[in-house]
Backbone:
């Protein structure tokens, strides 16, 4: 920049602008000059965001994620638990169907046992297969006798972190003994 004189030399290329007695020449931008005597600031509007604005947005997103993600994962685990509860109810109905034709309920410990024919029955009756096909729980039936059985659903993987009302759900069980049904843990079953 050079101090202007009464008759400054005109450049051959570029842009001239005059600001409070100073003349500047730039070839790459066009900035309007303020009239002589105006001592205001030259304001150039910029586009985009400042680093501070971006950091505030990132902080807000992080706080929302810290609140929302655990709640979301709890709801996903709760929906998986509801799905296995429905499967347990379906197994209980299948056990009653077996008991109607057989002298006792049927135990299941392996995948092949779900479709195997029950021995000692008046007809060839099965449980009809495992009604729960997801990989978040493993169903089994133990303690089958003429008066009862226990259906267990053991959680697999992240489903073991499932909680309801502060109670860790863990393995869900549905036990029938002499006509009385007991579900445990109680807080984990749908009301």
Residues:
């Amino acid at each position: 920049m050079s101090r202007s004189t009464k008759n400054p030399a005109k450049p051959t290329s570029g842009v001239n602008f005059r600001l409070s007695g100073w003349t500047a020449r730039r070839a790459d931008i066009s900035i309007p000059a303020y009239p002589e005597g105006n001592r205001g600031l030259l304001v150039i509007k910029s586009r985009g965001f400042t680093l501070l604005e971006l950091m505030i947005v990132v902080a807000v997103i992080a706080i929302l994620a810290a609140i929302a993600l655990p709640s979301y994962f709890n709801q996903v685990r709760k929906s998986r638990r509801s799905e296995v509860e429905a499967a347990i109810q379906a197994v209980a109905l299948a056990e009653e169907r077996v008991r109607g034709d057989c002298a006792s309920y049927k135990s299941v410990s392996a995948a092949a046992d779900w479709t195997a024919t029950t021995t000692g029955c008046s007809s060839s009756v099965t449980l009809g297969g495992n009604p729960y096909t997801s990989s978040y729980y493993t169903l089994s039936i133990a303690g089958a006798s003429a008066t009862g059985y226990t259906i267990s659903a053991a959680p697999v993987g992240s489903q073991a972190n499932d909680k309801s009302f502060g109670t860790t759900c863990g393995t869900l069980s549905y036990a029938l003994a002499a006509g009385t049904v007991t579900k445990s843990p109680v807080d984990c079953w749908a009301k």
